């Protein structure tokens, strides 16, 4: 049920917005002053207007060069939200690299998020002077190779362009986290965590686990519309596929509990 109604699109949309704002903020203020806190926006139009202005300022500061953006998990709801925000904010289509299972399966990470906008290989972004952004939108449910690590970035320090990571998936405590250095949560009043070992460009990450709250109106509307058809099936819970699957999942998880806990849950 949780995956059926998860606010994935707006998580990706809000995460991409903060990533672009952080990219622009770094260009204006350097590494020592983190991106200021954010509060929920009344509408997505209010958010987009602010992000577009920030991106335009950043592009002007960056020699009229827009950032390159890698989105992993691009085909899911979360990835689509991230890409839609980037395009709406003024990032050219040619600056957005969309990866999903086909690309990450073609060659295992870590990936050099700096080298070429290209077919799947170990290199994910273009070798130029543009600072770059990585937005992680995957659904992590099993061990996978790492996407990028701190050691890998340090080994590649002279050519690193990556300056912002937005881990929308936010698996900070998951032992299989494919971005191991994204291991602390961030919050709307402190959106970013800066890695002090990296300068020129700086490197910060965003790990807010309630990103849709940045757009409470649109996210709530989308959640309600996704949930309503399932709620209308409640009178037919014994035959409706969605409720049958929910029951099967519940029973499967109960079966994995110690016996005394399983009896308590089933009673």
How confident is the prediction overall: mean pLDDT? 87
What class, by secondary structure content? alpha/beta
Helix residue percentage: 40-55%
> In total, how many beta strands?
6
Describe the protein's architecture and organization:
The chain is an alpha/beta fold and 267 residues long. It contains 9 helices and 6 strands. Helix 2 crosses helix 4. The relative contact order is 0.16.
Keywords:
single chain, 267 residues, alpha/beta, globular
What can be said about this structure in brief?
It is built from 9 helices and 6 strands.
Q: How are the SSEs placed, and which strands pair?
A:
Elements (H helix, E strand, L loop, with lengths): L1 H4 L2 H22 L14 H18 L6 E5 L4 H12 L7 E4 L1 H6 L25 E5 L13 H6 L6 E6 L25 E2 L9 E3 L9 H16 L9 H15 L3 H8 L1
Parallel strand pairs: 1-2, 1-3, 3-4, 4-6
Antiparallel strand pairs: 5-6
């Amino acid at each position: 049920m949780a995956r059926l109604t998860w606010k994935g699109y707006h998580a990706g949309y809000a995460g991409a917005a903060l990533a672009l704002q952080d990219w622009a903020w770094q260009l204006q203020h350097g590494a020592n002053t983190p991106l200021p806190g954010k509060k929920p926006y009344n509408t997505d139009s209010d958010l987009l207007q602010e992000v577009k202005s920030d991106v335009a300022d950043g592009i002007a500061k960056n020699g009229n060069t827009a950032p390159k953006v890698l989105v992993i998990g691009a085909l899911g709801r979360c990835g689509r939200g991230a890409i839609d925000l980037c395009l709406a904010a003024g990032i050219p289509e040619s600056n957005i690299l969309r990866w999903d299972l086909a690309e990450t399966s073609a060659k295992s990470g870590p990936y050099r998020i700096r080298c070429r906008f290209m077919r799947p290989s170990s290199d994910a972004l273009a070798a130029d002077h543009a600072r770059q952004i990585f937005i992680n939108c995957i659904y992590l449910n099993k061990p996978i190779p790492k996407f990028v690590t701190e050691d890998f970035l340090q080994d590649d320090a002279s050519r690193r362009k990556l300056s912002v990571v937005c881990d929308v998936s936010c698996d900070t405590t998951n032992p299989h986290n494919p971005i191991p250095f994204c291991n602390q949560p961030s919050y709307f009043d402190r959106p970013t965590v800066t890695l002090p070992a990296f300068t020129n460009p700086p490197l910060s990450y965003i790990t807010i686990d309630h990103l849709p709250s940045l757009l409470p109106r649109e996210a709530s509307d989308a959640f309600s519309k996704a949930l309503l058809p399932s709620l209308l099936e409640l009178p037919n819970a014994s035959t409706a596929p969605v409720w049958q699957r929910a029951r099967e999942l519940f029973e499967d998880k109960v079966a994995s509990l110690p016996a005394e806990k399983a009896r308590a849950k089933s009673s």
